[in-house]
């Protein structure tokens, strides 16, 4: 079955960015001149996704407005003769079919899936976190979908991290000489980590995973973890594939330091400002 839908989790509070997130969602913070969430949506669309399901909460109205038409702004740009800007603004709302669902249920990264379950129905789908970016030549979600089509099994994105960072992420153990998951453990200590392959907010899931998640008990930190459902799926004999970032890198924006790193990396890739920005950074290094 062709993968047409993507569920993007954007119901977080962004407390690590206060006061900047006091009146705007964390996912609307800009990476240069484009909000974080737009990069995520553009990756989905470039990978063939048609329906974007954004799982939100009460304070995400500006995010929803961003993907809506802005007739007053469009009229102003048209009168000013700013055709390129006008095209860019109009493209935002026409990229995909946008669906908004309010998150309900316990805290945890598995809850957005359950909130969108009635829309997902019996289809495989992409699940993404709204503050994870992948800067790569080919949209990373396209790699995930290709993996799913080749193996007919759910798949998760991973990237190798430093050993001292494994306690921040879900860490994956591969079966010998394969790209198939043996198990995943949420935020292990460096001593107990089975590898340095950290899972991040890009995966292709199937209805079977959703059904398991509906029965999954709250786990570490009294949260509902999608990794717990994945682990149960694998224990029951299901195949779960792993896709490592190969032509780029995963960039989280979940805290101020990593947000700044992502901004720098994206700015350096820009044709219009990258060269001048690189020269400025070299000047600072002196």
Topology:
Layout (H helix, E strand, L loop, with lengths): L4 E5 L20 E2 L2 E2 H11 L4 E6 L4 H6 L4 H9 L3 H12 L2 E6 L8 H5 L1 H4 L4 E5 L2 E5 L3 H12 L3 E6 L9 E5 L6 E6 L10 E9 L1 H9 L10 H10 L5 E4 L3 E5 L3 H13 L5 H12 L1
Parallel strand pairs: 1-4, 1-6, 4-5, 8-12
Antiparallel strand pairs: 2-3, 6-11, 7-13, 8-11, 9-10, 9-11
Helix pairs in contact: 8-9
Q: Could you walk me through the main structural features you see in this protein, from its secondary elements to its overall organization?
A:
- Helix content is 36%, strand content 23%.
- It is an alpha/beta fold and 286 residues long.
- The protein has one domain: Alpha-Beta Complex (Spore Coat Polysaccharide Biosynthesis Protein SpsA, Chain A).
- The strands form three sheets. Strands 1, 4, 5, 6, 8, 9, 10, 11 and 12 form a nine-stranded mixed sheet that branches. A two-stranded antiparallel sheet has the order 2-3.
- A hairpin with a 6-residue loop joins strand 9 (170-174) and strand 10.
- The mean pLDDT is 93.
């Amino acid at each position: 079955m062709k993968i047409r839908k993507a569920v993007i989790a954007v119901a977080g509070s962004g407390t690590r960015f206060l006061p900047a997130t006091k009146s705007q969602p964390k996912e609307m913070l800009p990476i240069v001149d484009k909000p974080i969430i737009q990069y995520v949506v553009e990756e989905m669309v470039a990978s063939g996704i048609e329906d974007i399901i954004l799982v939100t909460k009460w304070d995400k109205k500006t995010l929803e407005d961003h993907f809506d038409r802005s007739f007053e702004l469009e009229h102003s740009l048209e009168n000013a003769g700013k055709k390129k800007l006008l095209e860019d603004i109009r493209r935002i709302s026409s990229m995909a079919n946008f669906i908004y669902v309010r998150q309900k249920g316990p805290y945890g990264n598995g809850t957005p899936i359950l909130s969108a379950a009635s829309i997902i129905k019996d289809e495989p789908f992409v699940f993404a976190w709204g503050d994870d970016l992948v800067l790569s030549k080919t949209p990373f979600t396209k790699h995930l979908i290709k993996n799913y089509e080749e193996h007919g099994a759910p798949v998760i994105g991973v990237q190798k991290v430093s050993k001292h960072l494994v306690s921040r992420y879900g860490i994956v153990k591969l079966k010998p000489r394969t790209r198939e998951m043996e198990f995943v453990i949420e935020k292990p200590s460096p001593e107990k980590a089975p590898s340095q392959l950290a899972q991040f907010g890009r995966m292709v899931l199937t209805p079977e995973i959703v059904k398991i998640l509906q029965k999954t008990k709250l786990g570490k930190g009294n949260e509902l973890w999608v990794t717990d459902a994945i682990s149960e799926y694998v224990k029951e004999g299901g195949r779960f594939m792993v896709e490592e970032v190969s032509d780029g890198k995963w960039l989280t924006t979940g805290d101020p330091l990593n947000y700044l790193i992502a901004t720098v990396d994206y700015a350096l890739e820009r044709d219009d400002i990258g060269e001048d920005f690189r020269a400025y950074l070299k000047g600072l290094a002196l």
